[in-house]
């Protein structure tokens, strides 16, 4: 009984110690990321431009001109894709974030996923509330194109970014082949749905990737002789 408790405590402690070492190694990256997120807030998107013509409609119009297809068909197809990403596709990266360490029995990875995920969530919602009533010129940073609040940064983007940062750092860069398109599609979907400005999804993505990346250590694989 005592040995099992010690084992449980040991991997949580190991995960936390490796997390602290990784954070110490990437202080410069954290500073750059913080500055990038601040720049996204200093140069907010023009809310009125999102309402004059929605990003979904303007993109449909551009694609229709580029492909010589009827705009109604293009808009319908793009709208279906947007809703698929919003309701299903964006969860692929989150599922991978949980399933990969489970399948590999990577207890330290699971612990670091929880640590970094909690840090990302707390930071995202803290900034949402801090920036909600901040005005830059005539723009309130917390105002969404659809009229809602807590625009900056995007929680969907930070969640997708967190999954990317964790899997990339822990299990290798080849996972970016599918994680990066999912992140970009998630960001685009939030803009197309008038749920966030471009600056908000950029801030969310940077936050999620960097916070999780710096709090995660590469997995050590033992090679048998």
From TrEMBL:
Residue ranges occupied by any Phosphatidic acid phosphatase type 2/haloperoxidase domain in the UniProt entry: 116-216
Gene3D superfamilies found in the cross-reference section: Phosphatidic acid phosphatase type 2/haloperoxidase
Keywords assigned: Membrane, Transmembrane, Transmembrane helix
One of the Pfam families matching this protein, by short name: PAP2
TM annotation in the entry: 29-47, 173-192, 198-216
Superkingdom of origin: Bacteria
Name of the featured protein: Phosphatidic acid phosphatase type 2/haloperoxidase domain-containing protein
Organism: Limnohabitans planktonicus II-D5
């Amino acid at each position: 009984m005592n040995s099992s408790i010690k084992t449980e405590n040991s991997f949580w402690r190991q995960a936390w110690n490796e997390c602290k070492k990784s954070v110490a190694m990437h202080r410069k990256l954290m500073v750059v990321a913080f500055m990038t997120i601040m720049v996204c807030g200093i140069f907010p998107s023009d809310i009125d431009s999102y309402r004059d013509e929605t990003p979904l409609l303007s993109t449909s119009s551009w694609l229709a001109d580029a492909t010589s297809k009827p705009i109604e068909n293009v808009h319908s197809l793009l709208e279906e894709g947007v809703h698929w990403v919003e309701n299903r596709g964006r969860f692929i990266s989150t599922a991978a974030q949980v399933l990969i360490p489970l399948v590999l029995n990577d207890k330290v990875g699971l612990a670091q996923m929880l640590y970094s995920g909690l840090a990302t969530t707390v930071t995202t919602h803290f900034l949402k509330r801090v920036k909600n009533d901040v005005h830059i010129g005539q723009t309130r940073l917390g105002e969404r194109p659809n009229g809602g609040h807590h625009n900056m940064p995007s929680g969907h983007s930070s969640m997708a970014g967190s999954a990317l940062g964790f899997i990339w750092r822990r299990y290798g860069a080849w996972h970016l082949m599918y994680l990066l398109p999912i992140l970009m599609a998630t960001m685009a979907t939030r803009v197309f749905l008038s749920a966030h400005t471009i600056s908000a999804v950029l801030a969310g993505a940077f936050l999620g990737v960097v916070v999780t990346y710096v709090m995660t250590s590469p997995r050590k694989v033992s090679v048998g002789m």
